[in-house]
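Hey all, quick one. A colleague (J.T.) asked me to put the magnesium ion job into the tracker so the inputs and the structure tokens live in one place instead of scattered across chat threads. No bug as far as I know, just bookkeeping. Sequence used:
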Amino acid sequence: MSQIIAIANQKGGVGKTTTTVSLAAAIGKMNKNVLIIDADPQSNASSAIGFNSPNNSALYDSLLNNYSLRNGIMSTAMERVSIVPSAPELAGVEVELVSHLAREYRMQNTLESLREEYDLIFIDCPPSLGLLTVNALTAADSVLIPVQCEYFALEGLKHLSNTVELIQKNLNPKLKICGILLTMYDARTNLSRDVELEVRAHFNETFNVVIPRSIRLSEAPSHGISVLDYDPESAGAVAYNQLAEEFLNLSNGHHS
Ligand SMILES: Nc1ncnc2c1ncn2[C@@H]1O[C@H](COP(=O)(O)OP(=O)(O)OP(=O)(O)O)[C@@H](O)[C@H]1O
Ligand SMILES: [Mg+2]
């Protein structure tokens, strides 16, 4: 059932990295082998799980020079979760890859050889629709889209779903929307509720589980561990556990 999932939204700060790390941690605890690919030159996923000055150019070399990604896989303190960390060189990929042949398929080529070794591969994308994100969407079976519950959420989402359609048409016909995830939900505000209703009305792929705004989620990265180890009882950890269950049920074909 091996699957490659891109976690993407061109909008910054919507919870892509938090979702990548927390969902991977929750699924790892459910006995699945997970690999995180940190495809964002900002390296937030890497530092969130303790790789503070990643000195690992495996992802860059696999994209630019066809090196094997295997050399870059690091084990983490999280059960059954490994990571290919990001490196500053990755920022150059957007420019350097432009002149390469089949530049959109580089990540697909490099991940296909690893696919069977993991139950799930999560790609944490940068906040843009540049070549790194296009490579991730071309490599992926599906895309998980975190959306912050705020004004203009729907506009960004429409833009992204047009991009997903373009990728389906031109680069990766099998790409699906795995789900839209409402993040930083604040039950006390009308805004969160309005955004939720609006997103659900337009996109029936929206996850039932909603991620609340939770201070523990923003604290965990500075400790280099996921929220599931930092404070397993916190609302954020509980929500990501529920998301992991909903996600695995969807992958097994149980639609509610
Ligand atoms: N549910 C939440 N509750 C509170 N804070 C959150 C929540 N989700 C994310 N955050 C915080 O919001 C900020 C942005 O989150 P995150 O880094 O996951 O977003 P991102 O989409 O990966 O950002 P970027 O586009 O820069 O990669 C971080 O400081 C994170 O700790
Ligand atoms: Mg991020």
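Adding what we noticed when we looked at it: The chain is about 40% helix and 15% strand. The pocket of adenosine-5'-triphosphate (ligand 1) is lined by residues 12-18, 40, 42, 44, 127, 183-184, 211, 213-214, 217-218, 221, 236 (CB under 6 Å).
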